[in-house]
Amino acid sequence: MKNSFSLLFYLKKSKANLQGESPIYLRITINGKRSEISVSRSIEASKWNSSANRAKGKTERIRSLNSYLDIIVSKIYQHHRELIETDSEITSII
User: Which residues lie closer than 8 Å to 57 by C-beta, 6 or more apart?
Assistant: First the structure.
């Protein structure tokens, strides 16, 4: 059975902290069912590129954040691949 699978990083602007930074969340969607989880990082909304799902800029902090997000994506795809190889059920439950 083929599953639809997508990942999306986004900001929860409604939960901005006193410094004006919004937490970054990851949404995993499988077959139309969503799960969301915080990635325990935050950033100013003006420094977030929603179409790229990454932070904008070239500072060390931005590079480090984008690298962290890339690692998360890589690990999720690795687990997804392992589930497919073992013929396990794939759900969006985190």
Answer: 47
What tens digit of pLDDT does each residue of 54-64 get?
Answer: 999 999 999 99
Cβ atoms within 10 A of the Cβ of 21, count? Answer: 17
User: What is the spatial distance between Cα 8 and Cα 76, in angstroms, rounded to a whole number?
Assistant: 12
Q: What is the 3-state secondary structure (H, E, C) of the chain?
A: CCCCEEEEEEECHHHCCCCCEEEEEEEEEECCEEEEEEEEEEEEHHHEECCCCEECCCCHHHHHHHHHHHHHHHHHHHHHHHHHHCCCCCCCCC
Q: Which residues of 39-62 are buried (b: 16+ CB within 10 A; e: fewer)?
A: eebbbeeeebeeeebbbebeeeee
pTM, rounded to two decimals: 0.87
Query: Could you identify the residue written with the tokens 């932070």?
Result: 55
Nearest to 65, CA basis, from 15, 6, 9 = 9
